User: Which sequence fits this backbone?
């Protein structure tokens, strides 16, 4: 786990503890159940390590923030704060005073009363896009060009809203491939399919390595997307196993792939 500063939440473990606790509350867990779920997950991992103090202090601070600090968590956190303020060997000399200040502030905060806050419930979002939908999208909002690019929905998958809670609310997320095509108008499904999809180098289990981007309609809104047709002709070559293997495209990668596609076509490297 990484540490990038002296603050209580300048640590990967602390941030994960904070987010997990908040997600459990947002999924409807009561105070005791949410605390127990976080403790049961983390304590076996951090017990006896330097991350144990990080865990208890982070849990106490986030519980206090939401007005749910238990006596036991408070006791554990204050004990670790006292210990850490006297043991600064893991910190650089120029960090020690800042870390002590952060710990002292946390200790003072935990002694203050806090009002119980209502946590907005976690809700998943749905999508109107369906498997087989061909999406036409403007590339002019990315670069000053009135052309369009096209993508197709390979599948719609359910992704947990929280990475920590697999049985909680889910988002319906389209998995899309981007066609190697840019044009002024939709050429029709058959011609579009002849261009194929943007691919990775090499092959996966003998199948073309199509890049599968997990995206949302909201993320794609800037491209003025519209469904022009539903056609599953090409999808017979894209099976579920391939989608799982290649489903690693990020939103940043999605945007850069579109920009690169336009560059390649302008240079005549893709017809």
Assistant:
């Amino acid at each position: 786990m990484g540490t990038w500063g002296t603050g209580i939440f300048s640590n990967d473990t602390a941030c994960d503890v904070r987010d997990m606790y908040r997600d459990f509350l947002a999924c409807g867990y009561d105070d005791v159940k949410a605390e127990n779920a976080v403790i049961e997950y983390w304590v076996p991992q951090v017990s006896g390590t330097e991350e144990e103090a990080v865990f208890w202090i982070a849990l106490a601070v986030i519980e206090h923030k939401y007005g749910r600090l238990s006596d036991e968590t408070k006791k554990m956190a204050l004990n670790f704060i006292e210990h850490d303020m006297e043991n600064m060997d893991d910190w650089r000399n120029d960090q020690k005073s800042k870390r002590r200040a952060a710990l002292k502030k946390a200790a003072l905060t935990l002694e203050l009363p806090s009002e119980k806050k209502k946590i907005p419930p976690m809700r998943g979002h749905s999508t109107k896009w369906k498997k087989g939908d061909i999406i036409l999208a403007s590339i002019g909002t990315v670069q000053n060009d009135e052309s369009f690019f096209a993508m197709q929905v390979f599948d719609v998958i359910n992704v947990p809203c929280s990475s920590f809670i697999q049985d909680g609310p889910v988002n319906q997320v389209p998995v899309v491939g981007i066609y190697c095509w840019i044009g002024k108008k939709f050429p029709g499904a058959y011609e579009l399919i002849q261009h194929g999809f943007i691919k990775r180098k090499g092959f996966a289990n003998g199948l073309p390595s199509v890049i599968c981007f997990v995206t949302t309609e909201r993320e794609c809104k800037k491209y003025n997307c519209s469904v022009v047709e539903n056609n599953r002709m090409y999808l017979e070559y894209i099976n579920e196993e391939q989608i799982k293997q290649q489903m690693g495209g990020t939103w940043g990668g999605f945007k850069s792939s579109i920009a690169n596609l336009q560059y390649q076509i302008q240079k005549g490297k893709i017809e």
